[in-house]
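Sample pair:
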Amino acid sequence: MPRKSSSIGVLNNHITSSQHQIGLRSVAISQFTSNLLEIRNYIDINLKPQFIDYYIGNEYELLDNYITSFTNNVKDRLLQFELSSGPDSDTQYLAQIASKIIDIVIKSRNEYKVNQQLIDTLKNYLSIYASGTSYPVPAPINGVINVDVSIDEKYLKYIEMFGTPSDGVFESDKLIQAENALN
């Protein structure tokens, strides 16, 4: 059965008779595909296993070591991809997203470390509180003080006769009795 329409008319606007233009388009598409494959491979080797898999897998020591050793190199290479591709290209977009992923992971790790330090400090304070001991303070300052102490005899007689006052206040009428007993 014959076809009702043909795609030749649609393609006519895009097909030129010049082999030179077709060749240039082919090279541009080939270069575009090559750039995309190159950045994809770079991300698969230098970003995903470290910044994503280490983070999700709780392999923080490996992640922290990678961040310290290789972040600048990875970000520089992503910037090269971004600058060498055309504006609004897929390669530029992938480079920007990959760079933002790195920034997010690093920020998250730094905030985690700060929070972990606060948690450790709080745990330390709680253990001190729970043990019933006071927080260790620096060693006290030791010294010798010479003091001449004198006490009025009426107070000694008061204590001898009535005992020490329970509230620490000597009663005046009992104090008069102690003074009279001394005379």
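The radius of gyration is 43 Å.
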